Amino acid sequence: MAKKVKASASSAKRVYFFGDGKAEGNAKMKELLGGKGANLAEMSRLGIRVPPGFTVTTEVCTYFMNTNGKYPKGLKEEAETALKKVEKIMGARFGDAQNPLLFSVRSGARVSMPGMMESVLNIGLNETTSPGLIAKAGNERFVYDAYRRLIMMYSDVVMEKAAGIEPKEGMGIRQQLESQMRKMKDAKGVKDDTELDVDDLKKLVNIFKKKVKQVLKKDFPDDPYDQLWGAISAVFQSWNGKRAVAYRRIENIPNDWGTAVNVQTMVFGNMGNDSATGVAFTRDPATGEDKFYGEFLVNAQGEDVVAGIRTPQAINAVSKTEASKHLPSLEELMPALYKQLAKIRTKLEEHYRDMQDIEFTIQDGKLFMLQTRVGKRNGTAAVRMAVDMCEQGLISKEEAILRVKPEQLDELLHPMLDPRAEKSAEKLAGGLPAGPGGAIGQIVFTADDADAWAKAGKKVVLVRDETSPEDVHGMRAAQAILTAKGGMTSHAALVARGWGKCCIVGCGALNISAAKKVLSVNGRKLHEGDWISLNGTKGIVYDGTLGLLPADPEKNVHYKKLMSWADKLRKLNIRTNADNPKDARAARNFGAEGIGLTRTEHMFFGPDRIAAMRQMILADDEAGRKKALKKLLPLQRRDFIGIFKVMDGLPVTIRTLDPPLHEFLPNDEASQKEMAEQMGVSVDTIKAKVQSLHELNPMLGHRGCRLGITYPEITAMQVQAIIEAACHVTKQGVKVLPEIMIPLVGTKAELEDQRKLAVDTAEMVINKTGARGTGHGARVKYLVGTMIEIPRAAITADQIAEVAEFFSFGTNDLTQMTFGYSRDDAGTFLPDYLSKKILPAEPFQTLDQEGVGQLVDMGIRRGRSSRPDLKVGICGEHGGDPKSIDFCHRVGMNYVSCSPFRVPIARLAAARAAIENKK
Ligand code: PEP
Ligand code: MG
């Protein structure tokens, strides 16, 4: 690879000129010219005025890196030719005493890496050229100010950082020069840099030069060409600077891309009151409205706009804010220039067919565009722009769908913390983003407290080491859930996601003492009742209360339109994982086309049924179990009736009991006592039973279909409840399509056993209830299928499909068993695996296509080899993850099933998969 780059860098064109309505490059050449260079070339071709210059390619960067800082032969000559063209356009010369030209030298990678690499401005200023520039600009102070800025920037970026010098904390050359400047201001008794006059700045230039020599043992270079090549090398070197390397690691940007370098004529927005500089977006990036939006400063440099020292002015009336409403806009101040800018806006949008983020400078009444790039936007704006641009004929429906990242819909579906408040808020800790959206509440440490405080009208955040099914009432009552332990498929994460509740798990910095009702985090102590704010989309915990922005997707016409386009294009059906009528209703409103998983165990935790469940588990014999199950039957039937009614006309997959039984038993002394009293047995009997059910590896123990095989009466009761409910609502005219799903099957024989039991029970119920015949008494149709969540099931899927009418991939367990990572304990090592890049992504969140995915693909193929019309879906957490949904589309699944709040995300992701895989 390195060899190839070397060869091409020494033979190919390495310098691309742009300016005066011409350019050697274009927007498609981002790999070679970087995003900035490619777009500068494109703007120039479009006849938009950019300060002329040239781009040195990314291949030169790679060559420079591979050869320890050498340049390919002939590069300087190529650059010189381009530089001469620039001089001609500008009617000025680099290094000339009378009419000098100055350059900026900036980085520009293929993708934007904001602030991660270096730039040097004002290259070409020295003792010889400064008088010429003073004469030209008619402003001596401006020139000396530029000169002292050059020395500061150059000594820092080129002479120190690029030279590999690592000064002690606070002793960097930039800080030392800043302290010289501060000394001068103190001596004069002034505060602002602008209060230093020409003589001060002249003195400062000399002081700076001396200091540079003293600290770095080298003279500040006076030769403009030394300055230029020093700066170019430093920018190339900054590709391997600490910040840039760290950023690339986080953003998964390959190290061998390299950066291009843009050498461009300096234009000054600070040459007086006919000069200005600003930034703008071709549409409002916060709302997506088709309004030109931006701000600027008169007589200022680009960095002043961002630095926030002066209040920027709005470019037009619609951009005015509270802070800028009293200041004149660019449109009011310089109407002709504003008109030019507005024209450029239209030209850029029509050309790029997307919202652009632009930078401009006005020098002496002349407008220059410095940059254009596709602008970043929030979710709401992304949806609006995509739909508007499609309706304005700029893009197709397919493109509109590809413009919105599925994750961006989260912002429309959940309340969010106010992003402006987040900027200035104190971050307490970070964890895994398990449930999206924002929430604010007072800390409570137990589920009972959460419940009680919420009933008293308070907003609470339930903070625990980890949650268990016993905490569900408190979790429901809380605004958000925060846990110190657990991963993305931990109990807290699953439950919260199902409800669309904000949740952060695995927040390791929390040290919780639930008994003392206090937690410590990064040296801070927080007590019960203290307020915190959570960003569950990013996994950040803040101290205090931040503003919350409400969500109301139903009122968003753009969102609804985009989703209707997505529905027409997608091939996958979208179902939901829901355990109760409320969640089912929410999911249906979000567009779910059925239920892909009802986890029946969640129904047994309600206060009215946990006792009967425990009696069933504690019973000594079948008769005892049957007695307890009889109590559960009507309750379970009622649950199903509720769900069937909500899902009228849509399929509902119901899974028989899955978790190990001991999860239902009381673990603490007090509840064991209560249990003993209820059942009329001794506490010791209860304790002994709890003990006897204890397993070393419960997730690999007595759970799933193994329970139904040992205790057939459990499966029988559940099937009876399902079919009775189905017969009941059928008689009321509801259309039911129940699908009975057997979990954790590894062999055909296991499924055969449970299937026979299910079919016998169902037929018995149908015969008894008389749900045969026509009309409202029509025979209830049902399917019996299985989950594929054990590797052996995927491998023997052809055999299993002989007795399964459908497959649903349980990729949570399948991931656990394929990797051999415990779902509940992986949080202890997965963060290291991710930061060390041992794994590319959290495998419980994004399906591991290379490994687990192979089993899924094989399972589908083998399953369909013996049953061609086998219906296949997924109900693990991956069913709501866009990348995994793309995979599900490619392997030919019929549907994905995910938590209710992820249904819209899945609809969009499925449409994107259909579009992208057609390309
Ligand atoms: C699975 O294993 O993917 C699944 C959906 O089941 P559960 O998470 O309930 O084990
Ligand atoms: Mg499972």
What does this 3D model show about the protein?
The protein is of the alpha/beta class and 919 residues long. Helix content is 45%, strand content 17%. The chain has an 8-stranded mixed beta sheet. It has an 8-stranded parallel β-barrel with strand order 27-28-29-30-31-32-33-34, surrounded by 6 helices. A 6-stranded antiparallel beta sheet has the order 2-1-3-8-6-7, sandwiched between helices. Strand 17, helix 18 and strand 18 form a beta-alpha-beta unit. Helix 7 packs antiparallel against helix 8 and helix 15 crosses helix 21. The longest helix is centred in the last third of the chain and has 25 residues. The chain is elongated. Phosphoenolpyruvate binds next to strand 28 and helix 32. Phosphoenolpyruvate (PEP) binds next to strand 28 and helix 32.
In helices, the fraction of residues equals 40-55%
Largest sheet: 8 strands, mixed
- How far do the termini sit from each other? 29 Å
Report the mean per-residue pLDDT as an integer: 92
Could you write a compact summary of the structure shown?
The chain is built from 36 helices and 34 strands. By secondary structure, the chain is an alpha/beta fold. Mean pLDDT is 92; it is low at 1-10 and 773-777.
Question: Would you spell out the secondary-structure blueprint of this structure?
Answer:
Blueprint: H1 2-11, E1 15-19, E2 22-23, H2 30-45, E3 53-56, H3 58-66, H4 75-90, E4 93-94, E5 100-101, E6 103-109, E7 119-123, H5 129-137, H6 140-161, H7 173-188, H8 198-216, H9 224-237, H10 242-251, E8 259-265, E9 276-281, E10 293-298, H11 302-307, E11 313-314, H12 330-333, H13 335-352, E12 356-363, E13 366-374, H14 379-391, H15 397-403, H16 410-413, E14 416-417, H17 419-424, E15 427-430, E16 432-435, E17 438-444, H18 447-455, E18 460-464, H19 472-477, E19 480-483, H20 491-499, E20 502-505, E21 510-513, E22 518-521, E23 524-527, E24 531-535, E25 540-543, E26 548-549, H21 557-569, E27 573-577, H22 581-589, E28 595-599, H23 610-618, H24 622-646, E29 651-655, H25 669-679, H26 683-693, H27 705-710, H28 712-731, E30 737-742, H29 748-769, E31 783-788, H30 791-795, H31 797-801, E32 806-809, H32 811-819, H33 830-835, H34 852-866, E33 871-874, H35 882-890, E34 895-898, H36 903-916
Parallel strand pairs: 4-5, 17-18, 18-19, 19-20, 27-28, 27-34, 28-29, 29-30, 30-31, 31-32, 32-33, 33-34
Antiparallel strand pairs: 1-2, 1-3, 3-8, 6-7, 6-8, 9-10, 9-12, 10-11, 12-13, 14-26, 15-25, 16-20, 17-24, 21-22, 22-23, 24-25
The chain binds phosphoenolpyruvate and magnesium ion (MG).
